[in-house]
Design brief:
single chain, globular
Length: 217
């Protein structure tokens, strides 16, 4: 269970909230980053099959295999960013998350222009690789923003608590866009894709000041 910090680490008490964190601007930026990232992150995972069926006339069975392709890319995307972060002093965790975050933003917007099945298969793998950094990197970045190791669980819990409402509302918002007018339309799918890209962009930009802060410290 997470514990609070104090002058004497032996007297730490259990806490679920570190009030000092609200006064630390880099940590606030990272909270906002995770909120916006997870507002858009799950939209492709939910709507890749729908887009494939509606825009590229893939069968329902074939379109769901695209999720497996995406997860294959994600397998590497959960390992390689951490390796880069631990071996690059210039980037560190926040820099790695920034670069992978901005890359996933670009790839999310590219989704709007994919117009054939082979291209979509390749896109799914690349998306899975870069987007999965959003799962792998928050613990590492949060540890760099944590004053004491004993507070890491508390701080990480705070990050996830802010991100969780975005997880809940992001995909339903996209669903409402996809079914504008009461049915799935091309315009609706493009609107959902754009919404995902904008959310990821905002989240990734909020990581930039965190990277600058960690480089100075």
């Amino acid at each position: 269970m997470p514990r609070s910090s104090g002058d004497d680490t032996k007297s730490l008490t259990y806490l679920f909230l570190d009030k000092r964190a609200w006064k630390e601007l880099p940590f606030i930026y990272y909270l906002l980053a995770n909120f916006f990232i997870f507002l858009g992150y799950y939209i492709p995972w939910f709507y890749i099959p729908t887009a494939a069926q509606k825009l590229l006339q893939m069968s329902e069975t074939a379109s769901f295999y695209l999720i497996a392709v995406t997860h294959t890319g994600g397998m590497f995307g959960r390992i390689i960013p951490g390796y880069i972060a631990s071996h690059s002093r210039r980037l560190g965790a926040a820099g790695t998350h920034t670069i992978f975050g901005l890359s996933s933003t670009i790839i999310a917007f590219v989704w709007m222009g994919v117009n054939n099945v082979p291209g979509l298969v390749i896109w799914c793998f690349i998306w899975g690789f870069f987007a999965s950094s959003h799962i792998a990197m928050p613990p590492a970045v949060t540890s760099d923003l944590c004053p004491l190791p004993e507070m890491l669980g508390t701080r990480l819990g705070m990050v996830e608590a802010i991100a969780s409402p975005a997880v809940l509302i992001g995909s339903p918002i996209a669903g409402a866009l996809v079914e504008m007018g009461g049915q799935v339309t091309r315009a609706g799918i493009l609107a959902a894709q754009a919404f995902a890209g904008v959310a990821l962009l905002m989240g990734s930009l909020f990581i930039l000041p965190v990277w600058f802060y960690t480089k100075r410290t």
